[in-house]
Amino acid sequence: MRLLGAKSIILSILIFAQGFEYSRTCKCDQQYFCNCSSNHLQHVPKVPANALGLDLSFNQIESININDLSPYSELKTLNLHKNKLRFIHKEAFKSQRNLKVLDLSLNNLKELFSSWFHELKSLQHLNLVGNPYSTLGPASIFPSLVNLRTLQFGSPSLRVVHKNGLDGLTHLEEMTFIGSNLRSYENGSLKAARPIGLVSLSLQNLFQNDPELVSKVLQDVSHPETQLTIKDVTLRTNTSTEPFKEAREGGTKSLSFQNITTSDEAITSLLQFMDGSPLSYIGLTDVHLVGQGWWQKASYTHYENLHTAYIRNLDIQGFFEFSSMIQLGFLLAHLHKVSVINGTVFVIPRETTLLLRKLEYLDLSQNLLSDLTIEPTLFTGLGAYQNLNTLNVSQNILKSLGQMSRLVTNLKRLIYLDLSHNSFVSMPEKCSWPATLRFLNLSSTKLRTMTACLPSTLTFLDLSENDLMVFNQRFPQLTTLILTGNRFMKLPQGKLFPRLHTLLIQRNALRMFNRSSLRRFKNLQYLEAGNNNFVCSCEFVSFFKQDVDRFITLRDGRCNYVCDTPFTLRGDAIESVRLSVFECYMIPAVSMLCSVIIIVLGLIVVTCHKLHVIWYLQMTKAWIQAKRKPAVGRLAKELRYDAFVSYSQHDAEWVEEILVPELESSQPSFALCLHKRDFRPGRWIVDNIIDSIEKSHRTLFVLSEHFVTSEWCRYELDFSHFRIVDEHNDSAVLVLLEQIKKETIPKRFCKLRKIMNSRTYLEWPEEEEKRDEFWSNLRAALQRDECTENAS
User: How far apart (Å, rounded) are the C-alpha atoms in residues 667 and 605?
Assistant: First the structure.
């Protein structure tokens, strides 16, 4: 048993250690994708067995053994880019029947083996670029990859390509081939069973050094249905462009160049070699041109099918010596779509615009067009731009929106206009626009206010990333409105947009929205309003969590809707906020709380009254005060009076005319204390009562109906009762002046009630003959005992 326990502990430690390694090196998300990139790993780490994606790029893995990937049979994506792979076991991918994407690029694989791919029936994308293998073929490497759609292979180390290397790839749609140092190429090596949709070739200096080999490659890949892209080349001479005859013969319709250096001579030669081809698209990206644009030697060529020219990141050496484009009329006259992006274009002369009669699409974004040069550039006289429906002049240095509206007014077919990323700042009160305009982009144009300048015919309007706060213009046809990145504090009025379908208003200053504001939008279906300064009131939180989906779809996800206020909830997702009843119903809650407090206080008051709590508190206070006073009389045994007489004012006549003369004139006489006669003037009456009772041997209570109802008699009775309790004596003498019920004496004076129940009290007789006996008994009750007299 001990042995089994030790094994369990060791196993637990191992599992913990593996889990620690996993948590330290990889991060797996809710989509079961594990990112282990850039962790200096030297072997395949442990990840959950149900992982669907595994990124091992930028590590130091040198080998993949037979069992390294076997636990992860659910993988759909495996990225081993930029490792140090030298060895892959022939059955390493045997368990990867569900794998769709495999990246083995930039490793140290010197040979490619078909056994790696035998079980990868589902593989659609394979990248083998940048490995030092020198030969492809002669045996077919990919016969089992029947579903492969994208293949990237080749490297500067590749020297020989045999004919059968790509056999079996019947569904290939995209291929990238790098063969900058290729020495031998067999005809038909890159020719697929059916045309490949996109072929990208990086042959670098082969155009200069071995154009014949390039011709063989182009012969295999050129086809009317294939978009051909040539990368990383230098074309300077006639000889370097001669291989493009094969592209013409193959019927290439789409030809692009990326990262090339060329010259006037090479371009002229290219146009001549491609003369008569069905070329319809020409693309130039990251081009360095050494020349002045003298291409007139190719003016006799025919490019009636060339409809699209795409130029991006054009660098012209000696830019200011570049000639006018008038001589390129044989090309421009047929173009329908032209894009010159980031090409330092600052003007298109009027003479050139006259050649663009067929132009439908013009993109001049990221250039140097200004208010001065835009006038000739958009010259519309003599039929120029008569077919233009899309114009993009974004990211230039334009400043006058009024001028732009005037210039495009004559573009009678203009539908799309992009003026974004300029510096308009202000908007004129009135503008003229073509009646056909439907899409307008004014994002990032530094606008601060809106006027009636914008056309009411729009169906799409982008005003994002400006400084707008108010939107009051009506757009009866608008279906999409983008107001992201402004300063709106509330949603615009829905009645202004009767057909609005989509509203984007993220990153503004929205405080909230509710059902009434959304109901004003008759056709709104999609809303993106995340990343605003929402006030998480009870009403808004309740509406957001329970009812918002009834009105619209939050297309940007609920996680982007967070609280800004109150401070305690700042940064919390509204979806997760839980507000208390007190926070949500403050006024009713406070009212109810106050009502409860009043009721409780009322109950306390009633209870205190019933239980005489106030009286007990008063007595306690008086007792404490009496205890703290210097006991001048009582402690020194200096009693000044035989009795303190407590009586009602209504009984004063009997006390003053009968009781006092009888006792004070008798032998022995009795010293009585009367409040009317013996209380010290100016002193607090309660102090007088306490002091008189303390200095009296007895307290004589003259009880009557009036006594019971007298407030001051009650005080005197209270203090006497307190003395009885405190000193444990029977100093009280009760005289019933008239018959009263014992129940009329307050019940809280239990001691006095007990005295009346247990001891005899004196009654004032109505009969004259019994009064002598009464006085005799009273004198006896008031008589001091011997001990007291000796002490005094």
Answer: 52
Residues in contact with 737: Cβ distance below 8 Å, sequence separation at least 6, in sequence order = 651, 654, 702, 703, 704, 707, 764
Own/partner long-range contacts of 55-59 (Cβ < 8 Å, ≥24 apart): 55/79, 56/80, 56/83, 57/81, 57/82, 57/83, 57/103, 58/82, 58/83, 59/83
Alpha-carbon distance of 197 to 166, in angstroms, equals 16
Q: Which residue has the tokens 């083996």?
A: 113
SS3 726: helix
Is the Cβ–Cβ distance between 716 and 699 less than 8 Å?
A: yes
Round to whole Å and give the CA distance between 691 and 684: 11
The closest of 766, 731, 756 to 654, measured between CA atoms, is: 766
H or E element, residue 309: strand 308-317
Q: Is the dihedral of CA 549, 551, 553, 559 positive or negative?
A: negative
Residue 340's φ and ψ, nearest 5 degrees, are -125, 95
Q: What is the dihedral of CA 694, 700, 704, 707, to 10 degrees?
A: -10
**Tell me, what amino acid is at 416?**
Y
Mean pLDDT of 699-722: 71
pLDDT digits (tens, 9 = 90+) for 462-514: 999 999 999 989 999 999 999 999 999 999 999 999 999 999 999 999 999 99
Contact 258, 286 (CB under 8 A): yes
The two beta strands, 227-235 and 553-554, are unpaired
At residue 84, what are phi and psi to the nearest 5 degrees? -125, 35
Query: Residue written as tokens 């001065």?
Result: 372
Q: CB neighbours of 483 closer than 8 A, spacing ≥ 6?
A: 463, 464, 468, 471, 492, 503, 504, 505, 508
Tens of pLDDT, residue by residue over 60-107, are: 999 999 999 999 999 999 999 999 999 999 999 999 999 999 999 999
Assign 296 a pLDDT band (cuts: 50, 70, 90): confident
Which domains occur in the chain, in start order?
24-190 (3.80.10.10), 468-579 (3.80.10.10), 641-782 (3.40.50.10140)
Q: Which amino acid is at 443?
A: S
Coarse DSSP helix, strand, coil percentages of the chain, rounded to the nearest 5 percent: 35, 20, 50
Cβ distance 133 to 156 under 8 Å?
Answer: no
DSSP 743: G
Terminal alpha carbon distance of the chain: 96
741 alpha carbon, distance to own chain's centre: 80
Q: Are 247 and 276 in contact (CB under 8 A)?
A: no
Which residues share a beta bridge with 645? 700
Residue for token pair 């490619």: 112
The Cα–Cα gap between 269 and 278 comes to 17
The 10 Å Cβ neighbour count of residue 226 is 21
Locate tokens 């809280």: which residue? 748
Q: Residues 389, 361: contact at Cβ < 8 Å?
A: yes
Nearest to 309 by CA among 289, 327, 333, 288: 333
In angstroms, the Cα distances linking 592 to 85, 582, 601, 602, 620 are 74, 11, 14, 15, 36
Tell me the chain's radius of gyration from C-alpha atoms.
53
Q: How far apart are CA 147 and CA 743, in angstroms?
A: 109
Sheet hosting strand 184-185, strand order edge to edge: 135-136, 160-161, 184-185
CA-CA distance, 641 to 730, in Å (whole number)? 16
Residues linked to residue 125 through DSSP beta bridges, in sequence order: 101, 150
Closest CA to 358 of 381, 338, 378: 338
φ/ψ (deg, to 5) at 313: 60, 60
The whole-model pTM stands at 0.72
Q: What is the dihedral of CA 360, 361, 364, 369, to 10 degrees?
A: 30
Question: According to DSSP H, which parts of 230-332 are helical?
Answer: 238-241, 244-249, 264-273, 329-332
Write the pLDDT tens digit of every residue in 221-273: 999 999 999 999 999 888 889 999 999 999 999 999 999 999 888 888 898 88
